[in-house]
Prior knowledge:
The protein is of the alpha+beta class. The chain has one domain. The chain has three helices and four strands, in the order αββααββ. The chain has helices spanning 4-7, 30-36, 44-51; strands at 8-15, 20-27, 59-63, 68-74. A hairpin with a 4-residue loop joins β1 (8-15) and β2 (20-27). The chain is globular. The mean pLDDT is 88.
Amino acid sequence: xxxxxxxxxxxxxxxxxxxxxxxxxxxxxxxxxxxxxxxxxxxxxxxxxxxxxxxxxxxxxxxxxxxxxxxxxxxxxxxxxxxxxxxxxxxxxxxxxxxxxxxxxxxxxx
Length: 110
């Protein structure tokens, strides 16, 4: 089964304000994007498990023209809280790279 790092040419995470983080999945090409953009393996359960966020608050925005999907989730704690280890969330994407991803099934993952 392919991993995120196999189907995406670039994955990035970034701060989206003091309460949100955004993840951008840039797929290798349009065919790969179509095949995996709605994969349940990249759904709310993954973000809840890896980042401790509320799965009901996740926003998912596919961008066909860029062959990418943007996922935003609520931080479990506000930016710069006492235990913060990655204030700008620039390294959070690393946890996603080795996630196994199955092709999309009918319907959307989020």
